[in-house]
Amino acid sequence: MTIRPVPAQIDLPAMERSILDFWREHKIFEASTAARESSQPWTFYEGPPTANGMPGTHHIEARVFKDVFPRYQTMKGKYVTRKAGWDCHGLPVEIAVEKELGFSGKGDIEKYGIAAFNEKCRDSVTRHVGAFTSMTNRMGFWVDFDQAYWTMAPEYVESVWWSLKEIWKKGLLVQDHRVAPYCPRCGTGLSDHELAQGYETVTDPSVYVRFPVTSGELADLGAALLVWTTTPWTLVSNTAIAVHPEVDYVVAEVTAEDAKEILIVAQPLLSALTGEVKALKIVKGRDLERVTYQRPLDLIDIPDSHFVVLADYVTTEDGTGLVHQSPAFGADDLAVCRAYGLPVVNPIAPNGTFLSEVPLVGGLFFKDADKTLVKELKSRGVLYKHQPYEHPYPHCWRCHTALIYYAQPSWYIRTTSIKDELIRENNRTNWYPETIKTGRYGDWLNNNIDWALSRNRYWGTPLPIWRCEEKHEVCVDSLKELGDLAGKELSKLDPHRPFVDDITFPCATCGKEMVRVPEVIDCWYDSGAMPFAQWGYPHKPGSVEKFKAAYPADFICEAIDQTRGWFYTLMTIGTLVFDQSSYKNVLCLGHILDKDGRKMSKHLGNVIEPIALMDQHGADAVRWYMLAAGSPWSARRVGHDAISDVVRKTLLTYWNTISFHTLYAQSSNFDISQIPAVKDRSMMDHWILSELNSLIAEVDQAYSEFDSHSAGRVLARFIDDLSNWYVRRSRRRFWDGDLAALGTLHECLVTLTQLLSPMVPFITEHVWQELVKPADAAAADSVHLTDFPIADKDQVNLELNAQVALTRRIVELGRAARAESAIKIRQPLQRALISAPGWAKLPKDMRGQIADELNVIDLADIADADGDLVNISIKANFKTLGAKYGKSVQEISKAIATADATPLVKQLRRSGLAKVGDWEIELSDLVVTEVPKSGWMVASHEGESVALDLALTQSLIDAGNVREVIRFIQERRKSDGFEISDRIKVRWNVDPAIAAAIADAAAHISDEVLALEFTHDQTLPAGENDLGISVVLVKT
RNA sequence: GGGCCCAUAGCUCAGCCUGGUUAGAGCGCUUCCCUGAUAAGGAAGAGGUCGGUGGUUCAAGUCCACCUGGGCCCA
Questions:
Q1: What is the spatial distance between Cα A469 and Cα A301, in angstroms, rounded to a whole number?
Q2: Distance A69 CA to B75 C1' (A)
Q3: Which of A150, A566, A624, A725 is catalytic?
Q4: Which nucleotides of strand B come closer than 7 angstroms to any CB of the protein?
Q5: Nearest alpha carbon to residue A445 among A567, A604, A580, A282
Q6: CA dist., res. A572 & res. A412, Å (int)
């Protein structure tokens, strides 16, 4: 066959570009799924990215993991379709367009026209999708863009409508007036999961304000209720003060700066008072109920109010234990005040400013009014204390405006009513890592609150509810149903604002005109509806079958911030509509951090652009780093150095081994049909095949558990074993064109390439085309069209693995001794003595390798050496002794340390038992180290030792010189540019003192350097090296 | 304020579930070796209070409690 050598150096990014062309031209992705069409499906759902900006490095992270497991499952024989998706609607897109157009709020949008504005939003989405597509292609994420779902597509919107109607029919989609977080700039309420994304730490004024009591005996005392708040602007609409019924409140006489006053605070919070404090009396919170007070500000009219109310939610953790109530701006406040029949007064307009008719603060933005109000409180003498207070406060996650908790009408999905079902579905879900299930996500479900679904915005799925003056409601599930109601053909209508707003029809109940409610829905609902809406279910022909075949998903994967986002909406909508969660396995990724462990943000200037990263290091490099350099679920740092390190270590070693193999495969006309049967191969071959088959099982297991980190670790270890032990130890066999060696290496590389291919699809494809296809006409056209390797347990030989490990440890010790001795490895030594458990059983082959690696002629067991030559030292093996004797181990250890080691070990070896002090021990209770007494260079570690005989004889020195000459000629062959198989003629000269020894070894040297002639030419000038070697090489 | 995760060499990470007395690997640094994969490979050295404190135990990086710092989430 025709394996051609590949260069040892590789330009990864350039290679990747040609592989991308190859995949495109040969439609490999399409072929990989088409081949499995009749197999069992393994369903993947793509969480749609919001196409409102350029893709970042965190997008690569998620996409690497979304790619590797579908590739693996495809190789395992599953049918894995990968439908791309784009999240098109929502505030992020609107904000981006507003910025583009220079708008500053909803007024500008309405002036501009909703139709035109939405058209701009549509354009913006389309534009950004391009950037995502090219990044996705570049990184080798196989996903089908041709059939991508777009949440703004009419069929998608209709599918969402259908699901909303299902929920509405169950009575779970309702309008309610509630206090909810609201962005005054965007003019819309935010859902709980949006709120979660926008906490920022701010410094607010925190004020302690006196509310003088105006009724009862406390009024006679001149007492004042002391209230603490961090939102002075809500004092304008103060309606009541809440206390906890069971808490003790202290009526305290406070003396500070010669002034006396009487203040009321909760007992645990007495420390809020400054100065000398004397408790006059203590009252229960419930006894304060309906006590009236003088409010601190009287800017607006609030009738029938201003007294103390009782509320269980009041805490004594901070403040004063007295909580001022402003029902328009707090959910708890609203509930409590409603119970007391108090009015809801709201002096703030939807744009966040005080109504113009309010004195003092009219027209001011609510947060900006704090300063003015604090000044006013001070001048009225009711301000007790004032200090800055740093705390997290919710902000709009996109525009960063401080949110206001604001009473407003809003549409809700009653998710609280399916809480039990959600918990049931969560219990059936496999979370990776597992802790999320009962931890972060489980907690969230347990504290579930209703989903605030509606948004008072423009670019979103319109809420498909029409209503008449009499509040009769109809929910529409499709354009067809809408057309039937309106008596028009509407199937071609764009189901967005403002077009759907224009459709009206008479109410079936009262005959009055029905108009659509003005809201659009939370775009998180759109993405959570993708399991069915991506097919246009149930309206579109064929969608029912497609949906049923692909629900629920076997695999979804996003970063951990999606626990309250997509992971939640997906499960919730699935459970609401189908009484079943939409996914079975969910992989939850850690976040991407910069090289110093900080979050990447434009603000810090530490953002790494994904395309640049891949152009510099290669997509495989970035992928390998993301997958293997840390656990999927822990946060990972990304930096250039970190990536180039892992590339050099693993990918280039792998590539080097490929390059090595192609070199010798070509020079020996390697033909896979000539590979000997496994049983006829050498022990080294058996060993690496044993490791290979263990590896297959380990990688298979790791991939199946979404643990790319473990897979990467065992793969990297195998690459190291293969390159730095198997190939290194078998080099001579490759030079000789040994078919067993070439065949074994080839088989290892083929399988390794397959195992690596889900993680690093480019370089493995390149290898497949360069190494596998040329050698095997029957091989698949692409590595990505192959079946995942199956481990052959019969080839796994744990004893052999252990023996090779021992061999390698002995070699390491020998090298250490060599280095210590300062005698170059090139210089042969007569013998080495070895002491190690297991040494006696080590096969001859491996002993030969040790001798070879250490360049030693004889190896012997230290035990066989003259008894006087060896020192035995022993220490306690705590693990076995501890199990047997527990507490006494320290004493035994001392006894062992002072025992005479040599006779003790001899006795143990003879009889198996011996006594140390009062304790009976076995040989395994000791760690025995044997070292020669003198004249030897010794290295030992954990009971294994190697000793080198440093005595040099003339024949050893001669042998060393011969080896030096061989090395010199080999180097010259290379620098002169000969092919490894070229035969040469050699003329040589060396220092006369060693010439005879070189001449004697002429046959051996000729053989090693492929010389047909080897002539001593004394006319050559001496070379500038230790032995004065000079050579002239001529190609024959 | 609450929950979860993390903390081991300058850096990236193993080891912890199942406790055992010299805590490992790779990268980087210094010195040396090897040379038919060579922009590879090997050895040695420097570099660790295993975040801190306490507890359990004959024995703690490993088990337990508390604390500190970082990340994420919630309020």
A1: 31
A2: 37
A3: A566
A4: 1, 3-6, 11-14, 20-22, 26-27, 32-44, 57-59, 70-75
A5: A567
A6: 13
Buried b / exposed e across A118-143, counting CB within 10 Å, b at 16+?
Answer: bebbbebbeebbeebbebbbbbbbbb
**CA at A713, C1' at B60: how many angstroms apart?**
28
Partner residues linked to A832 by β-bridges: A859, A948
Flag whether pLDDT at A648 surpasses 70: no
Q: Single out the catalytic residue among A169, A599, A894, A933.
A: A599
- Distance in angstroms, CA of A10 to C1' of B19? 47
Q: What is the pLDDT of residue A293?
A: 93
Confidence band of A884 (pLDDT split at 50, 70, 90)? confident
Quickly count: other Cβ atoms within 10 Å of residue A375's Cβ: 12
B4 C1' – A140 CA distance, angstroms? 33
Residue A602 appears among annotated catalytic residues: yes
The nucleotide closest to A943 (CA, C1' atoms): B22
What does the angle CA A631 – CA A574 – CA A461 come to, to the nearest 5 degrees? 100
Whether A48 is a known active-site residue: answer: yes
Active site residue A839: no
d(CA A203, CA A370): 12
pTM of whole model > 0.90?
no
ipTM of predicted assembly, 2 dp:
0.81
How far is A406 from A395, CA to CA, in rounded Å?
A: 14
Q: Active-site residue A87, yes or no?
A: yes
Q: DSSP readout, A451-488? A: EE-EES-SSSPBP-EEE-TT--EEE--SHHHHHHHHTS
Q: Which pLDDT belongs to residue A671?
A: 87
CA distance A806 to A278: 81
- Assigned token pair, A63: 């996409």
Catalytic (active site) residue A501: no
Q: Catalytic: A721?
A: no
Q: Tell me, what's the pLDDT at A1012? A: 87
What pLDDT, on the 0 to 100 scale, is given for residue A205? 82
pLDDT in tens, A490-499: 989 999 999 9
| Closest residue, CA to C1' of B25 | A717
CA distance A279 to A281: 6
Q: Are strands A829-835 and A856-861 parallel, antiparallel or unpaired?
A: parallel
CA–CA gap between residue A356 and residue A341 (Å, rounded): 27
